[in-house]
Specification:
- The chain is α/β, with parallel strands linked by helices.
- An 8-stranded mixed β-sheet has the order 3-2-1-4-5-6-9-10, with helices on both faces. A two-stranded parallel ribbon has the order 7-8.
- It comes from Amycolatopsis rifamycinica.
Amino acid sequence: MNWTEQQIPRQDGRVAVITGANTGLGFETARRLAERGATVVLAVRDTGKGRLAAARIDGDVSVRELDLTSLESIRAAAAALRAAHPRIDLLINNAGVMYTPKQTTRDGFELQFGTNHLGHFALTGLLLDRLLPVPGSRVVTVSSTGHRINAAIHFDDLQWERSYSRIAAYGQSKLANLMFTYELQRRLAAHGTTVAVAAHPGISDTELARNSPAVVRRLLTWLAPVLTQPATAGALPTLRAATDPSVLGGQYYGPSGLAERRGYPKLVASSPDSYDLTAQQRLWAVSEDLTGVRFPVGGATAAA
């Protein structure tokens, strides 16, 4: 049976924190969760845009400033969220950048890796103890089919200091999202409450591709009717990963259509590289060192 928004269970009493929720997939995810009764926090860089987005959503919605390119901002946002919410049921790591020219975050990380992976790694570690006591809580991280395209974890040059490919750098960041999810799930398994799940939206009509090379943007424009789906549909894999009672930790959801470009959400498989246990554990250790954040699972506690 095709899974649609009508199958989202009631979310009354649940708290959902969604990064990058003022537009696109994040906005649609927030809107539907709020409509089902969740208390939703839009964690966004631009709080003005966040407030405009919140005004368009019916339900209990608030806005929290979060700049994933700054560890200082991430720590401040986590502290504010912890103060406001003794429990968190859903943490949805949705925000991201794609195909940007070579840039760095405020902490000197390559922008795509720093935002898409390291920023969410740090935020999750700093909030996880608010999820661990909550039965049925989930960390959902949004990846991409781009994790298969010219993608590898370049441990010898994670920050692309020797050379730079915007497509390969994006692929590395999205592959890192999946490796993070799978390693986090192993660490969560002993606790028996929180699970880690991943999702991807296929090819969705959002602002994410605005930094793509001109030829890619033209191609997407020409082929949009057959290649892409609206953000309302692209958000469904995330919503299923976040709310479907049958979901298990470590699973990955994406569209059911040809090449997973669009369609109803279903359980999918990621690339063989994403399941490399040694690489997952190495990436975790490197991410801890770069962010200074330790998780309250696996014998460590989140850094203050």
